[in-house]
Amino acid sequence: MPKLKFGLAIPAWVWLLVFFVAPIFMVIVFSFGYKPSIFATHALDHLSFDRYLEALSPTFFSTFLNTLWIGILGTALCLVIGGPVAYWIAVKAPPSKRGLLLALVMVPFWTNFLVRTIGWQVILAPEGWLSQLLQGIGVIPGPLDLLYSRGAVLLGVVYNYLPLMILPLFVAFDRVSGPLREASKDLGANSVTTFLRVTVPLARPGIIAGVLLVYIPLMGDYITATVLGGAKGNMIGQVVASQFQTAQNWALGSAMAVLLIIVIMLSIAVAAGLLWLVTLPLRQRNRLVLGEGS
């Protein structure tokens, strides 16, 4: 029986090795190479860390910081916006309407990612209908100056990745049974205390899953930055893509990609450590000490 279980997992392991481990290994190897000439993409006869030093130069380091800022703030906005929506669908909405509401959440995914982002380019254009509407009602004195900025990129990533936050949060909130919330209220807790002391701790795995599902792909996104960011909204994924596709400097692009992976892993580790420290007093306060009253 154990051999049968291992055999069933072989296709998944092969897929993981071929399409994840092998490409990552190749990128790491290329990052130690260099671009030998204008017509060659890379060479590996002389390995060094020079491409990493080049990737960390002030020219590209500011793009890393901008990417980190957009990634953290975009994920936080998705959590703040998606949390109440997911909670309302899972707890407050009639069960007969939840399927329809989840389908509406998924509607943006029926359209290509690039097409959705270009749609926001049309909306945010200075001569677009949104700009004309805001000028018509007196909200802004002149054309809307939001396109090709960090604000436009932030708006685009929140729109594109918000469903990835709502879906795992919905599943997490839906699994918190109603009797638990009712028991909390019977013990004297109000709605806010019940949500913070009962619902959120039980939904923590879904919250973590939603944050990771949004933060990791958002950090590597280059379509949104290319379409909506311009020079002010550069993200490192856009620079990595340009090194591979335009500059044909695979070594520098690989070094940037490896650094991006490291930044993502370190930021997740830091966030996990901060969360553990913040929740430590609460866990100690809620710990049940057996035999305390004996």
Automatic annotation (TrEMBL):
Entry-linked InterPro entries = MetI-like (IPR000515), MetI-like_sf (IPR035906)
Q: Which keywords fit this entry according to its UniProt record? A: Cell membrane, Membrane, Transmembrane, Transmembrane helix, Transport
Q: What is the lineage of its organism?
A: Bacteria, Bacillati, Actinomycetota, Actinomycetes, Micrococcales
User: What do the Gene Ontology cellular component annotations say?
Assistant: plasma membrane
Q: Provide the GO biological process annotations.
A: transmembrane transport
Q: What is its main location?
A: membrane
Superkingdom as given in the UniProt entry: Bacteria
Give every ABC transmembrane type-1 domain span. Answer: 64-271
**Which protein family is named in the record?**
Belongs to the binding-protein-dependent transport system permease family. CysTW subfamily.
A Pfam family (short name) is: BPD_transp_1
What membrane topology does the annotation report for this chain?
Multi-pass membrane protein
The membrane spanning regions, by residue number, are 12-34, 68-89, 101-123, 152-173, 194-216, 250-278
The places in or outside the cell where this protein is found are: Cell membrane
- Spell out the protein name for this chain: Spermidine/putrescine transport system permease protein PotB
